[in-house]
Amino acid sequence: MLIKNLSKLVAVAALVSSSQAIAWGQNGHRIVGELAEQHLTATTEQALTPLLEGESLAQISTWADEMRSDSSKFWSKTSSKWHYINVSDADNMHQHVHHNISSKEQVKNILDGIYYGINTLKSDSTSIDEKRFALRFLVHLVGDSHQPFHAGRAADHGGNKIDVTFFGDKTNLHSTWDTRLIENERLSYTEFTNFIKTSNSAIIEDYLNSEPADWLLESHHISEKIYNLNETDISYGYIYKYMPTVKTRLQQGGIRLAGLLNQIFDKKAQPLKEALKTSKTAD
User: Fold this and answer.
1) Name one GO biological process term (predicted).
2) pLDDT digits (tens, 9 = 90+) for 75-129
3) Domains defined along the chain, listed by start
4) Is the Cβ–Cβ distance between 224 and 245 less than 8 Å?
5) Over the chain, what is the mean pLDDT?
6) Which positions of the chain have pLDDT values less than 70?
7) 221-234: buried (b, 16+ CB within 10 Å) or exposed (e) per residue?
């Protein structure tokens, strides 16, 4: 019994450790999902009900990371490339968009993954299980696209190979932005969401006047500024400087996720007010 319990503890520890290196972290993704729910139209909420199976967007937001402990080839080998994009010509990010992605095998990066999710959810020929998979992944990837180092440099694996200290603890740059900056606020995801939520129509319009390639280009430019400053001893000054950026990216992620879902599920949703601007995303 002791060995069995120890094995369970080791497995849980491994999962927690790996999750810090691959996404916003659990609270970051839940914040994006929780905030998005506050901006869904009633029509979209109704359409999502059978896909969510009693869960919330916050609850399903971490699924794509949690499943990476599954031993199947897709989750252990293939799915990792869905979470990020590394491009040498980031200012031409829109040239890397493939709007017609319709199968998992076509997905080469996070942009492909987002359009796979959009197309699967809009298709009349995909099954309910395929739509549930697509929704869970899409919610996660919209969050990932707003974490700067998911559009970072390939050479250092999006900051994973850049060693830093966080109040003296050894970690890496990617994990700092995924998890530690958010967790340092000592807030639950619902508390954090309440602190950054907004009903300011000008801010919402600005955020929704965008499409997925824009989000990743923004992330790339933020990561480049952080790379260039090469700050490795992270403490109060770093947090003061960058927490406004973290909060803005989470706020943008939540509102844009809602805008994308409204665009997919509610034909009457108003672009720039409730839904993303009318663009090729809607094709």
Assistant:
1) DNA catabolic process
2) 999 999 999 999 888 778 999 999 999 999 999 999 999 999 999 999 999 999 9
3) 24-82+93-282 (1.10.575.10)
4) no
5) 91
6) 1-23, 279-283
7) ebbeebbeeeeeeb
